[in-house]
Amino acid sequence: MAQYFRYADWTTIVDPNVCAEYSVECLAEGCEAEFSIKDGEQSAETWRNAHTTRTGHRRFWQTYGHSVIVGPPPGSVVASRIAEHERAFEGQDSPVGSRQAHTAH
Ligand SMILES: [Zn+2]
Predict the structure, then answer these.
(1) What whole-number percentage of the chain has pLDDT above 90?
(2) Per the domain annotation, does 5 fall within a domain?
C-alpha cells in the first residue's frame, strides 16, 4: 500500500558516505581531454593547470557534484516510517560511490 506524506517538510543534506566528484573538461577545439576525480578539488586544479602548460589550452568546463539525501526534519512524525522504508530497501541499491576516477589524455 502506498504511503503519502503530503504535509511533511523535507530537508536536504549532503550524503557524508558518498564522495564529491570534481570534473574538468578541456573546451579547446579538437581536444577531448578530461579529468574526473572523487574528493580531489586540488587534483582537478593541478590537472587543469598542467594541461594548460602542456597544450596552451585555456578554456575548460568544470563541474562539481555531490550526493544528497532528502529526509524529514528532526522530530518529524514521519521519521520513523522513513527509517522503516530504508531498512526494507537496504541492499537493493547499487553503490553510488563505486565509480573509479579516471584520466584521459
Ligand atoms: Zn585541451
Answers:
(1) 48
(2) no
Q: Which residues surround ligand 1, an ion (CB under 5 A)?
A: 26, 28, 31, 33, 55, 57
6 within domain boundaries: no
Q: How far is the CA of 25 from the centre of ligand 1 (A)?
A: 8
Cα 21 to middle of ligand 1, angstroms: 20
Distance, CA 49 to ligand 1 centroid (Å)? 11
Q: What element of type H or E holds 33?
A: none
What is this structure's pTM? 0.57
User: Cell 579529468 sits at which residue?
Assistant: 35
Residue 68 lies in a domain: yes
